[in-house]
Specification:
Length: 161
């Protein structure tokens, strides 16, 4: 069980780090560029991110969150509440925020010309909305990784938390 929880925490932390990089460097960097260049760069990033490396991280973390929910609720190992909560936080806060928030926002600018008035207007409103969603999924992924580690840290103790 400990190894499974460690894998869950690793995958959640991996995605948290990926999301954090966007908040810490990518989006601030794009904001420093001329608007049309920043939008074009974001469109390129969105096209490039659909690759096997990202798929393994993103879909792997989602699978671990679903398995974490099932294992925690059905088997109720020591610390099950924390692993259940971690899995739920990741699934809702990171995965669903991405699927229902960031991805639709990305699609909203995908086919717009960065030099058109409509494109520049969309880019201006895109950034704060996308960054807020990204901050939510970053915090959710990092918190989920931390919570998933609690039972591992507490392993060997006599209490059932």
């Amino acid at each position: 069980m400990r190894f499974f929880f460690l894998l869950c925490a690793l995958w959640f932390a991996l995605m948290g780090g990926f999301f954090f990089a966007f908040s810490a460097a990518v989006m601030p960097g794009l904001a420093l560029m001329p608007k049309d260049s920043g939008m074009l760069a974001m469109q390129s990033i969105n096209g490039a991110v659909t690759n096997a490396y990202f798929a393994v991280g993103f879909w792997g973390a989602m699978a671990f969150s679903v398995l974490g929910l099932i294992v925690s609720f059905v088997l109720r190992p020591k610390g099950w509440f924390w692993t259940f909560l971690a899995s739920l936080i990741y699934l809702i806060g990171a995965f669903l925020t991405t699927v229902w928030g960031n991805v639709p926002a990305n699609r909203g600018i995908a086919d717009l010309s960065p030099t058109s008035p409509a494109g520049l207007s969309a880019w201006t409103s895109f950034q704060p909305h996308w960054i807020l969603l990204n901050d939510i999924r970053t915090a959710a992924a990092v918190l989920a990784a931390f919570l998933m580690l609690l039972p591992v840290i507490w392993a060997g103790g006599g209490s059932r938390r």
